[in-house]
Amino acid sequence: LLAAGGLVPTHLPRREEPVVKRPLTDATRATGDALRRAGYTEEAVARSLGLPGFTGAVLDGAWWTQASEAEGALRVLIDLLIHGARLPRRIAVQALPDAAWQARLVRDHSGDTIATGLCLPLGDDLIWTDRVDEPNKLGGLFLPDSSTWALRACLPKKPVARHMDLGCGAGAITVAAAR
């Protein structure tokens, strides 16, 4: 394994660390729970964008530009988290918990709320990545594509002790492997 200080020996026994509350992690988890409760799932988002799902060649196209047929809170979430729309804060707060701002997944700008990235629901996971239409100037993350889905499908069904992801994307493979 590689770490900031160099190689980390993998043969050393793991220390059991006490669970520490981490405000950013807690806020991210709370936001994910709220998104799922609002119906922000792979099936619902893909269907509202007129897609059969987020698999195969669908992920290789500009799927995030598809118009949404969703209504209500799901429409607001898709407009904000997929399309990257600027929404009046009064609308965003109806669809997102305060934790979304605490987790820095959205931010306010001139009375509007904007997402700081793109949130793709893949299976049971919510993958956060840089927006394709507003790339990170420091060399952002790659948006999941068909190769991401193919690699996720190849992961062992049973948990493994170790997994190393050498990708430079949003971590969709690592997140799936951690399950």
Describe the structure.
The chain is α+β, with helices and mostly antiparallel strands and 179 residues long. It has helices at residues 23-37, 42-48, 72-81, 89-95, 99-102, 146-154, 172-177; strands at residues 2-3, 6-7, 87-88, 106-109, 112-115, 118-122, 125-129. The strands form three sheets. It has a three-stranded antiparallel β-sheet with strand order 3-5-4. Strands 1-2 form a two-stranded antiparallel sheet. β1 (2-3) and β2 (6-7) form a beta hairpin. It is globular and about 45 Å long. It starts with a strand and ends with a helix. The model is unreliable at 1-15 (pLDDT under 50).
Chain-wise SSE layout:
Layout: E1 2-3, E2 6-7, H1 23-37, H2 42-48, H3 72-81, E3 87-88, H4 89-95, H5 99-102, E4 106-109, E5 112-115, E6 118-122, E7 125-129, H6 146-154, H7 172-177
Antiparallel strand pairs: 1-2, 3-5, 4-5, 6-7
Helix pairs in contact: 3-4
